[in-house]
Amino acid sequence: MKKIFLVAIATACLFSSCYKDNNNYDQQDVNTLKIETDAESYQVEQTKTLKIQPKLTSTIDGSAVYDFEWKLLSETEESVLSTAATLEEKIDAIPGKYTLLLTATDQKTKVRSYKTMALTVNSTLYNGYYVAYNRNGKGSLGFVRKDGEVFYDVEKGFSKIELQSKINKVYTTISKNLRLIFISTEDNIYRLHGDNLFANGNSGNMFPSKISVGTDFYAGMNYIPNSYPTDIFLINAGKPYANIGPDFGGSSSVYSDPLSYDQEYEMFPFVATTASYASLFYDNKGKKFLRMGYSTRNLLEMTSNAANQFDPSNVGKTVIAAIPGQGNEVYYVMKDPTNNKLSIYTIDQYIAAVAKGKQDIDLQQVPEFDKARYYSAVTDRPLLYYATENKLYLYDLRTSTSKLVLQLSSDEKLADVQVHHKKVWESIEQPEYNKQIVLAINKADKGEIRIHTVHADGTLEPTPLKAYAGFGQIADIDYRNPNN
Asked: Domain 33-122, what fold?
């Protein structure tokens, strides 16, 4: 009862004090600052300077003095970029999506005014061609960016690693949240982040047990069209290792054991996708296609389909190349081990009857196909390019004939050939796709990248559209598509 009495007294006092308040408030308008910018969102390349000069208008006091603060906000962190009214700073943030927050504080009244803007930080190496090359017995990685700027030895400048042996391959896997670059050398495999090139794995910690690095290394993915990669794969020395795509279930830093099968196998370094989103491999030991079921880790026999134009479970030939072609097709160049005759087998992805057709190669109509070292194809027509040491031929799958479209000088050798087209998992269309071809050319120990225009009939403009020198002896190139 005593407690109740005290509470009642306190309440009465409170009402009494309110009653004596005559509500005489001296109200005044407060000076605020209107902040306007020329855009609501900005983009900047990592390590480049971002300049934003806002328009500032005081609502009352034009002579007011303000303190300014520009902050860069991510989902988990924030940092102060500048305390000047105009932002002019180099942006070193990891590529991604951010919010810019400008705060202006009136020094006299301490009233704050705010302005937020969206900021996208793009990778310096956001779109173009990686160039793997060797100099003095050690590998390096270069980059020819879409705008023509060339970068050399990027693994030293960005990844802060130095390769200790020759480089063999470079692969890019850029789709949704999957952004990885892989490079293989004679004694190691490195995994780099696709935006900042920070090294986040190597052959010593990416696999469940020690491996010997093979020269046929490959990195690829099983991809659901207009969606995301469900599985990502590394194929090394004929053994495929799997991981879950980050958008599908969250990637691990360590890949699986080699995929399980009840026989010895030797997988060709390429992976396609079937209608049921199974991953499709070719076993050069068993000489047949095998599939890995959706969200499984076991290799299975191919199922029969009456519409198949050949039996994918019993091909009997050795694959020597796999080339993404028209639409979702993949052209497999195969050699018969009994007579060395060559054929092209076409697999059509994302349909039930994957075995679309085959063509035997007549060397009278397709000269030097047996000497081909590099292959590429346009993706909007049934045209395939194959290259010998210093000649480039165009093969027409409709007529099963070919013709010479470019010959290099006797002291130049081709190191790789890639038609400039979108990756199968890429959602962005660029106007130059299928209209250019990228050639890696070595002259002794010096490498050069040349880009030629591709005409409507598949022939090339003889004079290069662009040329980039300064590389060591080129071993491989791969296209880095933009983030999507």
From this structure: Immunoglobulin-like (2.60.40)
